[in-house]
Amino acid sequence: xxxxxxxxxxxxxxxxxxxxxxxxxxxxxxxxxxxxxxxxxxxxxxxxxxxxxxxxxxxxxxxxxxxxxxxxxxxxxxxxxxxxxxxxxxxxxxxxxxxxxxxxxxxxxxxxxxxxxxxxxxxxxxxxxxxxxxxxxxxxxxx
Length: 143
Prior knowledge:
Radius of gyration: 18 Å
Helix content: 40-55%
Strand content: 15-25%
Oligomer: single chain
CATH superfamily: Phosphotransferase system, mannose-type IIA component
Low-confidence stretches: none
Strand order of the largest sheet: 2-1-3-4
Number of helices: 5
Largest sheet: 4 strands, parallel
Number of strands: 6
Distance between the termini: 42 Å
Structural class: alpha/beta
Shape: globular
């Protein structure tokens, strides 16, 4: 099975999973764990290990993290390495809803390299400035 594992500082990962459930439907293969404020990396390691307990050595993991180099990601990678699961893990940082949604929808449809290129392109393409256009003749804003 292909798992999507979300890690973050605070509640971002759990919030992302809630949004993914809303948009793509609940998926047992999407797991989320955040580093609570005031918790240590060691405490997070235990929480992360508990969360990934259903994943076997034969499964693939797509690990999405809020920040590359942050404690949740580096701790998750240490746990995965200890369990011998790092070789089956694809790691992406800078988690956003478009990145996570595309990953969840496309993860079983393409090989790892194509998936990574697709989801990164989707995430980068979704970042735009939104400008509200107003008319001088009308007091209401057009959206």
